[in-house]
Amino acid sequence: xxxxxxxxxxxxxxxxxxxxxxxxxxxxxxxxxxxxxxxxxxxxxxxxxxxxxxxxxxxxx
Length: 61
Fold this sequence. Notes:
- Helix content is 43%, strand content 0%.
- By secondary structure, it is an all-alpha fold.
- The chain has a domain at 8-49: RNA polymerase subunit, RPB6/omega (Eukaryotic RPB6 RNA polymerase subunit).
- α1 crosses α2 (39-48).
């Protein structure tokens, strides 16, 4: 099951984690504009394109 709707907390955790990965040297998964160098902005662009390789595992209800 692919889950495309995240809570604001899940979104913040995904983007923050990905930004840290990028800051530590992980490869960027999209073609970024030349003027963008901030890892947080890059992570947000990746999130908007839905290509961040991070999943959210929710508990059973």
